[in-house]
Amino acid sequence: MVWLVNGLLAKVLNLVPRHQEIVERILGAQHAREFIVLIGCAEIVLAIWVLTRWKYKLSSILQIAAVIAMNILEFFLAPDLLLWGYLNFFFALSFSLLVYYHGFILTPKYKAIARS
To answer: What distance in Å separates the CA atoms of residue 19 and residue 33, rounded to the nearest whole number?
Structure first.
């Protein structure tokens, strides 16, 4: 749901203009709207992928990499635009740990139980 809400509402529909401001700061203002819509669409696709549970480990790795990469860029290039400032990175790491737990620990256990 995180990817769907952020992708559709915050980025594609631009209900959270702060996201576009962050992209403007990092990639420049000239094509920021186009970039933010593309990023939002990618997040929607990722949400669908996660919901299908297809290659869940690969999707977990991609989610973790995307969250960490985005937050490192934002941490250094746009900390004043983040909802929780520098603490945003703490929440990103927490989310990444949750994704790791779900993708690599919890889901394999459920699949093993379902096969028994």
So the answer is: 10
